[in-house]
Amino acid sequence: MKTYFVRTFGCQMNKHDSERIAGMLESELGLVEAKTPEVADVVVYNTCAVREGAEERLRGHVSSLKAAKTGDNPNVIIAVGGCIGQRDGEALLSYLPHVDVVFGTHNVGRLPALIASAHETKRTTVEVIDSATDFASDLPSIREHAWHAWLPITVGCNNFCTYCIVPYVRGRERSRQLEDIVTEAEKLVADGVVEVTLLGQNVNSYGRDLYGEPKFAEVLRRVAATGIRRVRFVTSHPKDLSDETIEVMANTPGVCHYLHLPVQSGSNRILESMNRRYTRESYLALVDRLYAAIPDLALSTDIIVGFPGETEEDFEQTLDVVRKSNLDQAFTFLYSPREGTPAATFEGAVPRDVMQQRFDRLITVVQASVYANNQRLVGSVQELLVTGTSRRDPNVITGRTDSNKVVHAPLPAGESAGSLAGRFVSVVIDEAQTWFLSGHFEG
Ligand code: SAH
Ligand code: SF4
Ligand code: F3S
After folding, report:
1. Sequence ranges of the domains in the chain
2. Could you tell me the pTM of the whole model?
3. Which of the ligands is closest to the CA of residue 159?
4. What's the per-residue H, E or C state across the chain?
5. Is 80 exceeded by the pLDDT of residue 135?
6. Ligand 1 centre from 300 Cα, in Å?
7. CATH placement of domain 3-127
8. What pLDDT is stored for residue 136 in this prediction?
9. Of 74, 78, 346, 373, which sits 20 to 30 A from 395 (CA to CA)?
10. Residue 48 CA to ligand 3 centre (angstroms)
């Protein structure tokens, strides 16, 4: 075994786990990254079970690798882990028989040993455990970008929203010791990281299990105090976002004025059926408090369309909340029943065509809001963290504002894109589209 390839599906937690997987495969097995899965000796799929679509993609990918395994790459070891691995365990082999290693979300650290065992014995190896006590962050890591790091502060979730598989595949919520988080943040700063994203399914409840009360505001304050230039975090459950956290966001240099606050639905009836434990009124009141404290806040959300029992009136309530929330971004999903979750047994399935039609209407309203907000930035000067170059033109850099907006700007004469990546530059915004802004370097 000489080379590996890791393909990641799903959320930021999985992206973080994949960076640890790459780190271990390099440091423990001495592998180097292959350019494509077809030529790699070890291929790892880090999977997501949150919606049916992600599962279909996994099946497609593994099937295409099967061709390589029966053709010119017969010794390739295929490992499947993450949330589908955790959910299905051995049963995964019934529909993906050419997989060699199955692992779960709680034993990422065991992957090198499992791969080595499958390699030596030429036997399929399955290991999935119910829970773990360590954090993947303690493992070595190969970060996708030298300047950005994911920093998990909790794993798992206790909220049991009725549509959601995450509590079943990630387990109960566990917080990491505050000192461990701060120590890791300090190391990252020393390592040249300028932007960190704190991770948890519901960061606002951080610390409840360890300290008897949530301490997320303190995490934010302490991580920002390490001097890191930008601190971001996902995800905030609206029921748990405290006024203290809003105050820290408003007044702490380095904490980005960007908030992902999933609303899921604007109808109280549906919110209750989803077990979200807030109302449209309390969500909108929270949004008002946020804008009052942080006038330049960029707000994003998640919305599920077609939850069982959703009527036209319910859906219009969702459109109404979107119109009133002044959104900068929304991730919109068609409801996807997940076996084992309560909602999968609920009556009142919304017909596919109705769902799709509502989805399209929602997108139109979201886009109008995003476009209007972006237009307001024309003429302003934005500080960008340069993330790379435009796919279409290597002489145009791409970066992100504090508010997480994508900006393109032509490279000034004498600068090379490579040397700017991971650096901060000031750009004047000239033009705004729905999905990106364009500008020129200041000065
Ligand atoms: N912990 C985060 C989100 C985790 S999953 C939170 O509480 O917001 C990311 C998003 O996927 C959710 O916000 C939800 O909008 C969507 N989602 C989860 N389960 C889904 C399902 N069964 N069907 C459609 N969308 C779903
Ligand atoms: Fe899923 Fe709800 Fe937990 Fe988010 S808060 S991970 S949507 S159960
Ligand atoms: Fe998917 Fe697992 Fe994340 S189900 S959204 S990868 S926690």
Report:
1. 3-127, 145-256, 290-376, 381-441
2. 0.97
3. 2
4. CCEEEEEECCCHHHHHHHHHHHHHHHHHHCCEECCCHHHCCEEEEEECCCCHHHHHHHHHHHHHHHHHHHCCCCCCEEEEEHHHHHHHHHHHHHHCCCCCEEECCCCHHHHHHHHHHHHHHCCCEEECCCCCCCCHHHCCCCCCCCCEEEEECEECCCCCCCCCCHHHHHCCCEECCHHHHHHHHHHHHHCCCCEEEEECCCHHHCCHHHHCCCCHHHHHHHHHCCCCCEEEEECCCHHHCCHHHHHHHHHCCCECCEEECCCECCCHHHHHHCCCCCCHHHHHHHHHHHHHHCCCCEEEEEEEECCCCCCHHHHHHHHHHHHHHCCCEEEEEECCCCCCCHHHHCCCCCCHHHHHHHHHHHHHHHHHHHHHHHHCCCCCEEEEEEEEECCCCCCEEEEECCCCCEEEEECCCCCCHHHHCCCEEEEEEEEECCCCEEEEECC
5. no
6. 14
7. 3.40.50.12160
8. 63
9. 373
10. 5
